[in-house]
Amino acid sequence: MNEKDDEQLGAFDPNIPEEGPSAPPPGWLDCVTGYDEPKGGDTGDQLYPPPPAYNPQPENDRNASVPNVRVPQVSESVAREALLKFVGSKWSKSSKPARNLTFKELQPITMYRYRLETYTESRSSAWEMEPFTGQVVDGPQYGMSPPPWDVPVQQPQRYIDVILKVRVPHSSFVKTCHRCHGCGRTRCTHCAGRGNRRCPFCHGHGRRTTGHGRNNRAGNNRCSSCQGRGRKRCTFCHGHGHKTCPTCQGNRNLMHFIQLTITWKNHVFEFVPDRLPEFPLKKFEKVSGDAFFIDESILVYPIVGFPDQEICDASRKASQEHHSKFSPQQVPCRILQQVSYLWAYSWCPGPILILQQVSYLWAYSWCPGPILILQQVSYLWAYSWCPGPILILQQVSYLWAYSWCPGPILILQQVSYLWAYS
């Protein structure tokens, strides 16, 4: 920074206004029929309940009957294929024992899984703005803006969560920027519009006390940071005293419009009777299969006449909860579609399948007395599969013992291995 530039610093321009609020003040925006005017400068989203014609009304005392249940059967080939797949993921050696394994008995257990999906749509609006650079303004001169639920949009694929933002037709208008009052620039708040600030090292004096001079007197030298001027160029506005308006980006005008937010959301209720606590229910989330019962409509109704009463009770509870929870009286949304599924699974419990067992023992003793155990470790991995005899693939044991004098045996190391599959 040279002296010529320093002489220009400090020139205050009263025509540059102070920076105003980022949100428009109350009454700044125009009123659009069918849309609420934000109060107190609040431009947050405002939800709109759907009209009565958009709300399906449930029919009283209506139920859904389930046809004949087709329970899948676990045959020997299916069980062997599952066993080979499991062994291949856990064992890198030969799978011949699993292929040649003889099944003496298969006792499948059937479990049911119920699922209800409710696909809803909600709409909200908020005022948005963007710098006006000469783009086309779709304002009220082209017609009246449609109500929130009459704005046409393309429906997405069902049962997938989607959020879409669209501009409401004929809701745009141009106004002077409220933040810079149409100037395109705002006064720098760090230097009060002067382009320079007081030097933080000499506090505006131009000189600094630096230790002791001659005859033990304090030295009063010129400040090397501001070159003795007492003020420095403002680093926030680069010495100009003003900044480009961050809202209109120097274009002086803003285009305001209403942005409509459409939210499609899929709400899921799932139930599996927990009759076997040892089987984790989360495993069902990874199981794929064909549902033997599917009921899809705008509104679905509880299942009746199914052999498993718990499924009927869960279906009635889920239908009542979704019909009441997603009604316009509770949540400003509408139900687009519902679908209920019913799956049947068959699986075979069995004894514990030991994949690997290892134990280690080190013991040392130099004099008559009890054995001193230094370390003992054991590992066990177990899985559950179909009934069948245990097949021992490999068993190895080692024992080393040494003794130099009468007394107890000195065991240096003992290791045993056991692999078993069923």
Automatic annotation (TrEMBL):
One of its GO terms (molecular function) is heat shock protein binding. Residues 1-65 are annotated as: Disordered. This is Protein SSUH2 homolog. It comes from Oncorhynchus tshawytscha (Chinook salmon). The gene is SSUH2.
